[in-house]
Amino acid sequence: MQVILLQDVKSLGKKGETVKVNDGYARNFILPKKLGVEANAKNLNDLKLQKANEEKKALEILEEAKAFAEALKDKEVIVKLKSGNDGKTFGSISTKEIAHAAKEQLGYDIDKKKMHLADQIRSLGVYNVPIKLHPKVTGELKVKVQEL
User: How far is the C-alpha of 134 from the C-alpha of 75, rounded, in Å?
Assistant: First the structure.
């Protein structure tokens, strides 16, 4: 019997796949537990429409991420850091502070977990902070660290 999986089933397949299983396994396990449906013409057509809709949504999300990365390219966030007389700084700038400054100054709600700093920012100057907006899109935000 051909079955379209509605959920991932261990050792059988992933959600959305069409697999061939024994009739008893389908009737007694997969269908009663709502793990899959019989692969008839209607269900196969529904699956095709659902996959097309998911691809369309994924493409829209990718385009939004690209547009946001393009908008971030020209933006700059100013973060203040306390420093001594000899130019030595006290503490460091974290991704949490950068995300807070971006929300306050630019109005962008950026997740601090998506920012990837190679090292902590411990000195004054201008830094480019990469932000992972989508698995295929990485934007950069310019962070200017000034004396408090």
Answer: 19
Last residue of a domain, one of 34, 66, 98: 66
b/e per residue, 24-49, with b = 16+ CB within 10 A?
eebeeebeeeebbbebeeebeeebee
Nearest to 95 by CA among 80, 82, 111: 111
Range of the domain at 108: 68-147
Give yes or no: residues 61 and 72 share one domain.
Answer: no
Q: Which residue has the higher pLDDT, 48 or 84?
A: 48
Block residue for tokens 């393009």: 70
Whole-model pTM: value is 0.69
Percent of residues, the chain, with pLDDT higher than 90: 69
In this prediction, residue 82 carries a pLDDT of 86
Give CA separation, 13 vs 5, 8, 37, 136, in Å: 7, 6, 14, 26
Q: Are residues 39 and 58 in the same domain?
A: yes
**In a shared domain, residues 48 and 23:** yes
- Other C-beta atoms closer than 10 Å to the C-beta of 21 total 18
* SS3 at position 138: strand
